[in-house]
Amino acid sequence: MTAVHPIHISAPRAAAPAARTDDATARWPREKVLALMELPFNDLLWQAQQVHRQHFDANVVERATLLSIKTGGCPEDCGYCPQSAHHDTGVEAGKLMEADEVRQAVQAAKQVGATRFCMGAAWRSPKDRDIEKVSKLIRVVKDAGLEACCTLGMLTEQQAQALKDAGLDYYNHNLDTAPEAYGRIIQTRDYQDRLDTLDRVRDAGIHVCSGGIVGMGESRAERAGLIAQLANLDPYPESVPINDLVRVEGTPLADAPKLDPLEFVRTIAVARITMPKSHVRLSAGRQQMSEAVQALCFLAGANSIFYGDKLLTTDNPDVQRDDALFAKLGLTAKAI
């Protein structure tokens, strides 16, 4: 039987000095973000809806597809991740997918209306030879006329530039949680490591996709801290995935208490208000969300979803279910 490990309770790592969310000079001080999160629910959604309509068509949603091109065996110890080599979850380490396999997945995604194709590899940080191989896969995506996104772990400046040269549009590197909560979840890297990679991606001219995971036992103030970190990046990310923890047996967070769905909606609304021009994406956890909760998230300003049956190694609502929900809500997919 798979062992269930306790939640990490070790001392958190120091907050990154480059991300001064509590400074008076910050665009969104943490106290201001927390004040938004604590507004009456109707007032918060009304404000978020107004901001959303200033920058987007409120009835258009971006569809992105996520493919795991290299699964399992990751040396990081992230408490939420079934792909970590530290956790006994039944996920076996695999090799990087070949171009023909990826091409088939890209064509299938395009046929069902995806406009962005995201590829994830379970690495702490890729080797240069890995970047060469992934660059070929990026060209497969671009040849199909889709936006290309990757999440490969931490990058050097040279690696970020090589991905840009290959045609990469977006790079995903989530901050996961607030700085003071980070050490409870991850021990094998520092918060500053995440920020440094985001800086290298931005300097290479690649759009930034960065968000976090909620429902990992954090407080509302810590959720506000995560949003403040993201909103005070200069510039803030063009794409902000908000994940509701998927609890996987064998990970340290398998028994974490579930987040109240309305608190998740609040997080979406605050992300929309503080990052008005970003695509705010409903990411992991949608499989467990009711249609009513998803509808509230769209009302709160979410305008992107992962579309397809899998998110790396966990289940995602199938295409038919999403199509039916879009029809009920009068939502349309963003055109290529």
Q: From the alpha-carbon coordinates, what is the Rg to the nearest angstrom?
A: 19 Å
Query: How far apart lie the N and C ends?
Result: 46 Å
Number of helices, counting only DSSP H or I runs of 4 residues or more = 11
Question: How many β-strands, per DSSP?
Answer: 12
Average pLDDT level: 85
Principal-axis shape equals globular
Estimate what percentage of residues fall within beta strands. 5-15%
Instruction: Give the H and E element order.
Output: HHEHEHEHEHHEEHEHEHEEEHE
- Regions with pLDDT < 50 over 5+ consecutive residues? 1-21, 310-314
Task: Give an overview of the whole structure.
38% of the residues lie in helices and 15% in strands. The chain has 336 residues and is α/β, with parallel strands linked by helices. Strands 1, 2, 3, 4, 5, 6, 7, 8, 9 and 12 form a ten-stranded parallel beta sheet that branches. Strands 10-11 form a two-stranded antiparallel ribbon. Helix 8 runs parallel beside helix 9 (261-274). Residues 1-21 and 310-314 have low confidence and may be disordered.
In short:
The chain contains 11 helices and 12 strands.
Helices, strands, pairings?
Elements lengths: L29 H8 L3 H15 L4 E11 L28 H13 L4 E6 L6 H16 L3 E5 L5 H10 L3 E3 L6 H7 L5 H13 L3 E3 L2 E3 L5 H12 L7 E6 L16 H14 L4 E4 L8 H9 L4 E3 L3 E2 L2 E2 L3 H11 L2 E2 L3
Parallel strand pairs: 1-2, 1-9, 1-12, 2-3, 3-4, 4-5, 6-7, 7-8, 8-9
Antiparallel strand pairs: 10-11
Descriptive keywords:
336 residues, two-stranded antiparallel ribbon, alpha/beta, 12 strands, disordered N terminus, 15% strand, 11 helices
